[in-house]
Amino acid sequence: MIGRLRGQVVWKQAPQLLIDVNGVGYEVEATMNTFYSLPLENSEITLYTHLVVREDAQLLYGFASEAERAMFRSLIRVNGVGAKMALTILSGMSIDDFACCIREGDSVTLTRLPGVGKKTAERLIIEMRDRLDKQMAAGASGVTTIEAAGTSPLRKDAVGDAVSALVALGYKAPEANRMVRSIKHEGLGSEDIIRAALQATVIK
């Protein structure tokens, strides 16, 4: 099991990134909350990771904090919730917001996330409530941001990158385009556009 990586960010396009660890490149899928805290390319970072082994692939998921990874691991234990859906949930809202939805039984907000229907939302609330209390009691709350030297540079096709990232997170292409068009994205980088689009979707 690969539990942590420390190396340089070689390339990133949400939600994927490539990390060089002593000459070995690791392809990692990260939550958007982790992506928001990433430094400039070629800067050094440390990510907590979870390896998923399937018959057709080995997928590595990265997180800015142990708390976020712990939440991911709890989510994939819920019946009907796979790694991709768990990544989408943790990209669409913070750990604290998700915990609030679970405690308050707010299935409406959860169903605004792609792939989360009413039955899945209700299952999340039922199965995650006890696990959440145990995690919080163990001190696994909050997200520790990665120390970064500067922020991500503005990409020429920030809008296109944002749409691609939303599609990768599970949104349909027309919906992803609508989400991006609905916000004022002039002058924003792709990660800022994604953040605004996701926040607008969950809050509405």
Features:
Helicase, Ruva Protein, domain 3; OB fold (Dihydrolipoamide Acetyltransferase, E2P); 204 residues; 19% strand; 45% helix
The beta-strand count equals 5
Poorly predicted parts: 140-156
Query: Overall pLDDT, averaged?
Result: 81
Largest sheet: 5 strands, mixed, barrel
CATH architecture of the largest domain: Orthogonal Bundle
Strand order of the main beta sheet, please?
Answer: 1-2-3-5-4
Count of discrete domains:
3
Total DSSP helices: 9
- N-to-C span: 39 Å
The radius of gyration is 16 Å
- Assigned CATH superfamily of the largest domain: 5' to 3' exonuclease, C-terminal subdomain
Query: Which CATH first-tier class of the largest domain would you pick?
Result: Mainly Alpha
Q: In percent, how helical is the residue content?
A: 40-55%
Which structural class fits the helix and strand makeup? Answer: alpha+beta
Written overview of the protein:
This protein is of the alpha+beta class and 204 residues long. The protein folds into three domains: 4-63, Nucleic acid-binding proteins (OB fold (Dihydrolipoamide Acetyltransferase, E2P)), CATH 2.40.50.140; 66-137, 5' to 3' exonuclease, C-terminal subdomain (DNA polymerase, domain 1, Orthogonal Bundle); 158-203, Ubiquitin-associated (UBA) domain (Helicase, Ruva Protein, domain 3, Orthogonal Bundle), CATH 1.10.8. Helices cover 45% and strands 19% of the residues. It contains nine helices and five strands. It has helices spanning 32-35, 66-75, 83-92, 95-104, 107-110, 118-137, 158-168, 173-181, 190-203, and strands spanning 4-13, 16-21, 24-30, 44-53, 58-63. β4 (44-53) and β5 (58-63) form a beta hairpin. α2 crosses α6, α7 packs across α8 and α7 (158-168) packs across α9. The longest helix is centred in the middle third of the chain and has 20 residues, at 118-137. It is globular and about 45 Å long. The N and C termini lie far apart (39 Å). Mean pLDDT is 81; it is low at 140-156.
